[in-house]
């Protein structure tokens, strides 16, 4: 309970005014207090749940999910977050809707929101498209709320766009904060965001970008490593640079995986498609040139196959600090000999860190719940105390 | 609160006995008191929600949806209605069920209803089939309840059949009642239900029919306009005629869109397929003659393309009362230059009325909730007062 | 209420310790006290619900369903069970997940379980595979809970595997117990589990096996009847034999349907595929030999068509005790002249027993709820009394 009180006291001192009745898109649009409040609120909600205290702040209401890409863990994380706050999940399955009928985003967004308090969207397939779409949804529901059409304004949670994966990166951050016993202990720690080989094509850049943009805010020594040609978006690199300067950390790039791994505290190792290729794909998609997309895919697969040595092997891990860096991955990973002949990581490395990886993932539902919570309450600290005082059991206790 | 008290007092004076433990299919099966009670209850439930008072009358229980045609807004309206009453939505996805296995409607209906309090069905594709199916479901669950198989009888809400679209028409009616400041002010107002061109084929007749059958009950001057050959069902025209006589209103038909629009107060403009063609399609469907259906489609598209001038253009709108008739549509609309090259309505007309159209749609969740509510309680007025007195917050208030 | 008190007193005297925080797979893994506690708890929960007393023991939390085969009634039964306990249903739709991405069962199971209290799985297609899969899921979530990754351990309910269909057989058992006025009255009653002709191929063996394995525990005279070649798994026959010896009942086999029906009290009549063929199919599946599977299917259909005389006809029913044996089926049935030209049962037989069949099915939601309930509470009797004392209304009562 001391822990809970500390968290609440902390949240009370953070300015969350701008989060109220607002949305959570990219982390770089949020200031440090807001990032901190999100993690503290996630921890406080988790603490309540662990003490069997209900965190239902809604007695009814909907949480809408829109997944424009397949998802298991983010889908269930969003569902879990809504459920623990008292919102019922409704998925907008675009294949069963009349959206093909030609209606606008503005219209659909309003039509599904009459009783919606939160909307979670994953749209990460085409550069610029996902973020665009989210802004269209936000403008629609905000406008419809102001015009008296919607009684409440549903607030949006970005469940992955084409640039950022905020719920992932914040769950990752919460994990390493707990690992190192406090955000202050991240200062100077070397974290490597490395590209890794996967036989599949065209994975989003957003995880890599979310990591370099977020971790540079805490004084970490952030290294981005990838083969030549696998650049991420220059705008995001700029954000990382500026964050590093401001926080007293570092942001460097290398095409040498070994150099990157050397003496690292944390290894984050994942495949992504080159930004330029993604942009080309987006252009082709815009023109409806699906043959062009297929051709591009062949080229990329060809290029991709040249870099099978970029893998988080046991040998590579030995290069890290005391050979014991924390290995991270957003999951699912392409594991050599398990889910792929050659993949992002050795099976033995993955197995050794399995529990850590699952713990890393366990923060996501709470991070999402915190984002919704902070968008709904002006005084989140007060409401958290109210919930504790209410003491409603999540599961009936045996007398 | 005065508003709420007025609504409750009103409902108290209406005889809703026959609605209790009953179903809501076509509006013409309900008497005036029942129609009125539905709208008043919808308004009262909305008022409670706007005051953050929970309308959950169920602590658990299911609301089952069966959509035999794609849907976004009706799907979410039903979900919202169930959620605000405390029922969890379960969709019967016929593609994931064993229904193809040859089981009867009677069996399926019972099997999904052990803990169901409400069932919402949309089945509007083939003349006579949708209503038939709904009656089969009703007979099944009623029988199973009487035989002691089901502990409660789920009550059915018709989310659109092949003849009527009651939740749509009642939401529309609620919208114009609010617009004109009371049902008494509808008397003498001219409302046009006009066919409009859409490039797509075979839209249900049910919206057009639901409008002429319902609006004639309130002394309105109802005009049905369509090109020759686009007749609706004669039975429904008869209902409209009788309603108009009884209510002191008018029901007229014309093949001249301009004549119809002249001096109109309300314009409802929408594509539908000719009744005779729909009946032919139903016959072909009955014979499993899918080639015949394709051929019929070609003929209809050919015929349809002759009527591109039937569109709610700016010029047409100028003919209406002061050029300012209220434009209505069930959405999504085929908008010229937006969702179709040539469509039902000019983009500028649609845009000018967008907020009104969305408000129109916003009544639907409450109308559905009211239908369920009235089927569940003998004394709806009393229960509404109970809910207000209970004062359970929908969203936790910050202290 | 006397009934409820009796049930609770009964449950109090049964040792359910091993059910706590455990899973429900095959019935033969549960001892007699555990089987009895499941049925009594199902009846007690039903009694509470019939008295409009809420059985919600969770204020939030998820119940996850995984259906690897189509399902209507089991799906809705699981949904209903979760809902009445306060868990929101989330379906893991493997086609919308990233499971194809190559992740392990261990990973998926953990990732969906952060806020899950129950998991229901149906996986009955390939011999040995379903049970295997369930054990993998159990091991995963148990391990993840012990390792501090999951705050609670979701408990698994087997919604049908390739060997057993425990929720079906227990619902069936509860039905005949109520029919005969007590489990003690089952002693000596003759129940026939007979194969029946259906034009479709490869139905699971699990219902037949679940019936012979469960009903032999209560002193019944259990007869397994099928054409030569339609043997069930020898291991399950062994279980049935041992159960019959222990309970003072009988377990016999015959290839003569008439002999089986003679003087029977209960007739359970259903198609299944021969165990050996199912094993062969499983082997072919393991090798990815889909041509082989097709060829096997043709052979089996050919063989199958030889046994159209195995049907529960009126003439067959006349052979049973006073011509009035209780006819049972897990539904949906292949009814001659209704859902198949020649099927498992005559339409007139089916119609005469329709109400009974639906009542039989009505026990399933409560049986599943009981399984979850017993996995969640150390002292189920106490909690049932707590629920009654709490007296929360399921549906708001009109004052």
UniProtKB/TrEMBL annotation, chains A, B, C:
The name this protein goes by in its record: Ornithine carbamoyltransferase
InterPro entries: Asp/Orn_carbamoyltranf_P-bd, Asp/Orn_carbamoylTrfase, Asp/Orn_carbamoylTrfase_sf, Asp_carbamoyltransf_Asp/Orn-bd, Carbamoyltransferase_YgeW
Pfam family, one: OTCace_N
The organism's place on the tree of life at top rank: Bacteria
Keywords: Transferase
Keyword Transferase (UniProt): yes
EC number: 2.1.3.3
Enzyme class: transferase
One of the record's GO molecular function terms: ornithine carbamoyltransferase activity
Family designation: Belongs to the aspartate/ornithine carbamoyltransferase superfamily.
UniProt keyword annotation of Transferase present: yes
One Gene Ontology biological process: citrulline biosynthetic process
Chain ranges of the Aspartate/ornithine carbamoyltransferase carbamoyl-P binding domain: 23-175
Domain Aspartate/ornithine carbamoyltransferase Asp/Orn-binding positions: 206-372
